[in-house]
Amino acid sequence: MNKFERLKEMSTLDAKKLIESLVGEEAAKKFFEEERKTISISEVEVGSFIVYGGLEWVVLDKTTKGVKVLSKHRLYNRAFDTDSHNNWAASTLRNELNNFNKCGWCCAYENTSQINKKDLVEFERDLTTDDGMTDYGKCRDYISLLTCEEYRKYRKLIPLADDWCWTITADSLVYDSYVRSVYSGGVLGGNDAYSGNSGVRPLCILKSEIEVEVCDEKV
Known about the structure:
Elements: H1 3-9, H2 12-23, H3 25-29, E1 37-40, E2 48-52, E3 55-62, E4 66-71, E5 76-77, H4 92-97, E6 100-101, E7 104-105, E8 123-126, E9 138-141, E10 143-144, H5 148-154, E11 165-170, E12 178-182, E13 188-192, E14 199-200, E15 203-207, E16 211-218
Antiparallel strand pairs: 1-16, 2-3, 2-16, 3-4, 4-15, 5-14, 6-7, 8-9, 10-15, 11-12, 12-13
């Protein structure tokens, strides 16, 4: 009887010990890891959690061009704009989030190099201020943040973050340094654009054919 035949007759614990003796403890772990289901994101239900590019995301919506997803967690903290202005189109944070090179997405978070621009759909962002002014117009992003309107629309699907997170919605034109943000308890508030205390929680649209890992949990 060879070793592979012996494995079939062993308990899981004994099989693990045998494999560890053959290939080492670290390599043996891979034999007993649960395989995650990988499918096209177009097949994933709204409200599900997925893994793409090394990050966890919640599926918010399906569009004609792709699937809208939001990072499950706050990735890091950053100023909205280092010049303390609340126009997302000209902000330093927007510039950072839409910075790609051949290695992938280039920002502060360590796993983001696995996110490729070719997997993303550029989409329109409405920069209407919280008090209804449209002077900032619209822009297009590959990676963005939620607007206040989107936050309200998808609120039931969005897990709470561990700290404040920015939206891209300016408070007003009059107080042009204030930006709306979401507090850790889920309440909308505001913060000065220069503050580095609010978190970055990316929003993007993945192309429908992208393969992703599906997590067991669901909102």
